[in-house]
Amino acid sequence: MLKRGLFRVIVMLTLVIALQVSDARAWGPRAMRSITAMALQVIKDDYPNTFRPGGVVGVNFERDVMAGASAGWQELVPETPLNNDTEVIQAISCEINLLRGVQQYGPTAYFAYRMGVLASLTAHAMLPYGFTWSEAEHELRRQLISDIEKHIDTYGFKPMQGNREFIRSAGDYFKQKRSFQAEDMQLIKHDYQKTGLGYNGFLKQGGRAYFIRAVEAVADVWYTVLRSDAPGAGFSLSKPSPRTLTWYFVNEMEYLINEKDNMTQVDKVYSNFERVNPQIMEAYEKLGDIFYVNENREIKMRGVSEWEKAYNFSGSRRQEIGRKLSTHFMDEGRFYLERASQPIAEDTDLNTALEMFTNALDFDRLN
């Protein structure tokens, strides 16, 4: 797999700082895999080929769904605010609308990956203490993670509802599906902090119920994404803005390069990116960052091209983009200058070095 580069490290450090907890998952990794795998089986009743569009012998996007679920809702941070329960539900609603909007571009690995991320976001919203915002709750959540992981193999799945539910309003849906949650949180807290019963109290029976509810909520959310028509006369969900679509495609290209090494698909996605992009300077810059850290020189030079597109816009980032370009051309100039003194030198090396240094100064006179 190709290395991700410094900018990816910076993003992950930002994520850690934003979460400010050592473990931000309420469903542990085994539990999340089980929820996602079961939801995949449930949704196949209505959409059997969504994640296996070519059937058994065709491309398999189920792996990408599982990868997204394992990466978790943290993939949405810091672009998506998740500072309280209202913002969590709003984030689910926005993800539903976004993924409904990108379906027209066909089933893709990244679409499946984001469906997995949405599964994580939804499953955590369904679990008491799935999201916490105080240190006391963080500690309680860590205990829940450990105990649920130990017992997840005992959680069989038996559907509570016959048909999937189309979610017209995420707020109304989760209010109804989680009507039990506030009281349950108090019972769980009492068991862990007062009586010492811990998992052997309310959670001993409640754990399986939360598992089933999480599976069904994930299936309902996916059903809402996949159903092209919104049931009910005069009803429609909002569509993602061109800006939202632009950043989705930027993230998709990053996924295709770093996780799939699939430049052919990147080129297709880039066409979608250009069609929807309302000339966002930062989007071109980010693409430049993604391409530039690649080990393949052709892809790296494509990153330079994206930086140059971004530089042609006016905006607060223009000077910083100019520095990136200047640094690149300085490095190129040094390379040709050094080679010019070696036996492998080419006749054009000194002229090329001069050209590169001139380009560097054009973008940043202070370099």
Explain what the structure shows.
With 367 residues, the protein is an all-alpha fold. 65% of the residues lie in helices and 0% in strands. The protein is built from 15 helices and no strands. It has helices at 6-19, 29-43, 62-71, 85-102, 109-126, 135-151, 170-177, 181-195, 203-226, 242-260, 263-276, 281-292, 297-311, 318-340, 349-363. The longest helix has 24 residues, at 203-226.
Count of DSSP helices?
A: 15
State the shape: elongated
Please compute the radius of gyration using only Cα atoms.
Answer: 24 Å
Helicity range: 55-70%
Query: Approximately how much beta-strand content do the residues carry?
Result: under 5%
The poorly predicted ranges are 1-23
Order of helices and strands: HHHHHHHHHHHHHHH
| Major sheet size, sense and barrel closure | none
- Total strand segments: 0
Determine the structural class based on helices, strands and strand pairing: mainly alpha
Mean pLDDT: 91
Distance between the termini: 34 Å
Helix and strand layout, with pairings?
Elements: H1 6-19, H2 29-43, H3 62-71, H4 85-102, H5 109-126, H6 135-151, H7 170-177, H8 181-195, H9 203-226, H10 242-260, H11 263-276, H12 281-292, H13 297-311, H14 318-340, H15 349-363
Describe the structure concisely for a colleague.
This protein has about 375 residues and is mainly α. Helix content is about 65%, strand content about 0%. The protein is built from 15 helices and no strands.
